[in-house]
Amino acid sequence: MFARSVMAGVTLAAVAAVACARPAQTSPAQVAASPLAPQASQAARHPTPRLDRTGRRRVGKASIYAGKFRGRKMADGTRMNPQDDSAASKTLPLGTTAKVTNLETGESAVVTIRDRGPFVKGRIVDLSPATADKVGLARREGVSKVEVTPIAMPPANEGAGIHDALRDTHVGRPDPGSTPVRR
Q1: 152-166 tens-digit pLDDT
Q2: Domain extent for 136
Q3: What is the pTM of this model?
Protein backbone atom coordinates (compact mmCIF):
# COMPACT_ATOMS: atom_id res chain seq x y z
CA MET A 1 0.00 0.00 0.00
CA PHE A 2 2.83 2.34 0.91
CA ALA A 3 4.54 1.65 -2.43
CA ARG A 4 1.37 2.60 -4.34
CA SER A 5 1.05 5.93 -2.54
CA VAL A 6 4.73 6.71 -3.18
CA MET A 7 4.28 5.78 -6.86
CA ALA A 8 1.18 8.03 -7.11
CA GLY A 9 3.10 10.88 -5.49
CA VAL A 10 6.00 10.50 -7.93
CA THR A 11 3.60 10.42 -10.88
CA LEU A 12 1.84 13.60 -9.69
CA ALA A 13 5.19 15.32 -9.22
CA ALA A 14 6.26 14.37 -12.76
CA VAL A 15 3.00 15.68 -14.24
CA ALA A 16 3.37 18.94 -12.30
CA ALA A 17 6.97 19.34 -13.51
CA VAL A 18 5.96 18.84 -17.14
CA ALA A 19 3.12 21.36 -16.76
CA CYS A 20 5.49 23.93 -15.27
CA ALA A 21 8.13 23.36 -17.95
CA ARG A 22 5.69 23.98 -20.82
CA PRO A 23 5.63 27.62 -21.96
CA ALA A 24 2.45 29.45 -21.10
CA GLN A 25 0.09 29.83 -24.02
CA THR A 26 -0.70 33.39 -24.94
CA SER A 27 -4.21 34.62 -25.40
CA PRO A 28 -5.27 36.38 -28.63
CA ALA A 29 -5.44 39.64 -26.68
CA GLN A 30 -1.79 39.26 -25.61
CA VAL A 31 -0.73 38.51 -29.19
CA ALA A 32 -2.61 41.57 -30.50
CA ALA A 33 -0.94 43.75 -27.85
CA SER A 34 2.50 42.61 -28.94
CA PRO A 35 4.32 45.33 -30.93
CA LEU A 36 5.56 42.75 -33.48
CA ALA A 37 2.18 41.08 -34.07
CA PRO A 38 1.08 43.19 -37.09
CA GLN A 39 4.40 42.80 -38.89
CA ALA A 40 4.60 39.09 -38.16
CA SER A 41 1.09 38.40 -39.39
CA GLN A 42 1.63 40.54 -42.51
CA ALA A 43 4.89 38.75 -43.26
CA ALA A 44 3.12 35.41 -43.00
CA ARG A 45 0.44 36.52 -45.47
CA HIS A 46 2.80 38.26 -47.91
CA PRO A 47 6.12 36.51 -48.37
CA THR A 48 8.82 38.79 -49.73
CA PRO A 49 9.25 38.18 -53.47
CA ARG A 50 12.66 38.35 -55.10
CA LEU A 51 13.63 41.54 -56.91
CA ASP A 52 13.50 41.23 -60.68
CA ARG A 53 16.34 43.12 -62.37
CA THR A 54 15.94 41.39 -65.76
CA GLY A 55 14.26 44.37 -67.41
CA ARG A 56 11.61 42.16 -69.01
CA ARG A 57 8.10 43.44 -69.59
CA ARG A 58 5.25 42.16 -67.46
CA VAL A 59 1.57 41.80 -68.28
CA GLY A 60 -1.03 41.70 -65.54
CA LYS A 61 -3.66 43.76 -63.79
CA ALA A 62 -3.22 47.26 -62.43
CA SER A 63 -5.24 48.83 -59.65
CA ILE A 64 -5.50 52.33 -58.18
CA TYR A 65 -4.16 53.43 -54.79
CA ALA A 66 -7.02 53.88 -52.33
CA GLY A 67 -7.63 57.39 -51.01
CA LYS A 68 -6.69 56.33 -47.48
CA PHE A 69 -3.01 56.11 -48.57
CA ARG A 70 -2.79 59.85 -49.34
CA GLY A 71 0.07 61.35 -47.33
CA ARG A 72 1.28 58.01 -45.95
CA LYS A 73 4.93 57.04 -46.23
CA MET A 74 5.78 54.73 -49.07
CA ALA A 75 8.55 52.12 -49.02
CA ASP A 76 11.14 54.61 -50.32
CA GLY A 77 10.31 57.07 -47.51
CA THR A 78 8.43 59.67 -49.58
CA ARG A 79 4.82 60.58 -48.90
CA MET A 80 2.10 59.31 -51.24
CA ASN A 81 0.89 62.20 -53.39
CA PRO A 82 -2.11 61.33 -55.61
CA GLN A 83 -0.87 63.85 -58.22
CA ASP A 84 2.57 62.23 -58.68
CA ASP A 85 3.33 59.57 -61.26
CA SER A 86 4.24 56.96 -58.69
CA ALA A 87 3.44 53.28 -58.47
CA ALA A 88 3.89 50.19 -56.31
CA SER A 89 5.42 46.93 -57.49
CA LYS A 90 6.24 43.75 -55.61
CA THR A 91 9.24 42.82 -57.73
CA LEU A 92 10.73 45.90 -59.42
CA PRO A 93 13.47 47.66 -57.41
CA LEU A 94 12.50 50.94 -55.75
CA GLY A 95 13.49 53.89 -57.93
CA THR A 96 12.83 52.05 -61.20
CA THR A 97 11.32 54.15 -63.99
CA ALA A 98 8.78 52.15 -66.00
CA LYS A 99 6.26 52.66 -68.79
CA VAL A 100 2.75 51.45 -67.93
CA THR A 101 0.44 50.82 -70.91
CA ASN A 102 -3.27 50.10 -70.47
CA LEU A 103 -3.87 47.25 -72.93
CA GLU A 104 -7.61 48.06 -73.07
CA THR A 105 -7.22 51.73 -74.04
CA GLY A 106 -3.71 51.81 -75.53
CA GLU A 107 -2.79 54.84 -73.37
CA SER A 108 0.46 54.88 -71.42
CA ALA A 109 2.35 56.84 -68.76
CA VAL A 110 5.82 56.78 -67.22
CA VAL A 111 5.95 56.05 -63.47
CA THR A 112 8.54 55.72 -60.73
CA ILE A 113 8.31 52.67 -58.45
CA ARG A 114 8.22 54.06 -54.92
CA ASP A 115 6.26 51.47 -52.94
CA ARG A 116 5.64 47.75 -52.46
CA GLY A 117 2.39 46.04 -53.44
CA PRO A 118 -0.30 45.41 -54.52
CA PHE A 119 -0.81 42.31 -52.39
CA VAL A 120 -3.72 40.93 -54.40
CA LYS A 121 -3.24 37.84 -56.56
CA GLY A 122 -2.90 38.66 -60.26
CA ARG A 123 -2.13 42.36 -59.79
CA ILE A 124 1.34 43.53 -60.76
CA VAL A 125 1.19 47.29 -60.18
CA ASP A 126 -0.71 49.83 -58.08
CA LEU A 127 -1.00 53.27 -59.71
CA SER A 128 -1.48 56.71 -58.21
CA PRO A 129 -4.84 58.30 -59.15
CA ALA A 130 -3.15 60.80 -61.53
CA THR A 131 -1.36 58.01 -63.39
CA ALA A 132 -4.53 55.92 -63.51
CA ASP A 133 -6.31 58.84 -65.20
CA LYS A 134 -3.49 59.17 -67.76
CA VAL A 135 -3.75 55.53 -68.80
CA GLY A 136 -7.54 55.54 -68.85
CA LEU A 137 -8.16 53.45 -65.74
CA ALA A 138 -11.37 54.75 -64.16
CA ARG A 139 -11.97 54.34 -60.43
CA ARG A 140 -15.34 52.70 -61.06
CA GLU A 141 -13.60 49.97 -63.09
CA GLY A 142 -10.99 49.45 -60.39
CA VAL A 143 -8.61 47.23 -62.35
CA SER A 144 -7.39 46.98 -65.92
CA LYS A 145 -5.00 44.77 -67.88
CA VAL A 146 -1.65 46.55 -68.34
CA GLU A 147 1.86 46.03 -69.59
CA VAL A 148 4.73 47.29 -67.40
CA THR A 149 8.05 47.81 -69.19
CA PRO A 150 11.07 48.94 -67.12
CA ILE A 151 12.91 51.88 -68.70
CA ALA A 152 15.69 52.50 -66.16
CA MET A 153 16.65 50.72 -62.95
CA PRO A 154 18.88 52.07 -60.21
CA PRO A 155 22.15 50.20 -59.69
CA ALA A 156 22.00 47.50 -57.03
CA ASN A 157 21.92 49.03 -53.54
CA GLU A 158 21.59 52.61 -54.85
CA GLY A 159 18.20 54.28 -54.65
CA ALA A 160 16.89 51.20 -52.89
CA GLY A 161 14.93 51.19 -49.69
CA ILE A 162 16.35 49.55 -46.58
CA HIS A 163 14.57 46.26 -47.28
CA ASP A 164 15.93 46.09 -50.84
CA ALA A 165 19.44 46.95 -49.66
CA LEU A 166 19.38 44.25 -46.99
CA ARG A 167 18.07 41.68 -49.46
CA ASP A 168 20.79 42.54 -52.01
CA THR A 169 23.76 42.36 -49.62
CA HIS A 170 25.43 39.52 -47.78
CA VAL A 171 26.28 40.04 -44.12
CA GLY A 172 29.99 39.92 -43.51
CA ARG A 173 31.03 40.58 -47.12
CA PRO A 174 31.91 44.06 -48.31
CA ASP A 175 30.09 45.40 -51.35
CA PRO A 176 32.13 45.30 -54.57
CA GLY A 177 33.97 48.58 -54.98
CA SER A 178 33.61 49.54 -51.33
CA THR A 179 36.54 50.73 -49.26
CA PRO A 180 37.52 48.36 -46.43
CA VAL A 181 37.28 49.80 -42.94
CA ARG A 182 40.50 49.63 -40.86
CA ARG A 183 40.20 49.11 -37.16
Answers
A1: 999 887 544 445 444
A2: 58-168
A3: 0.61
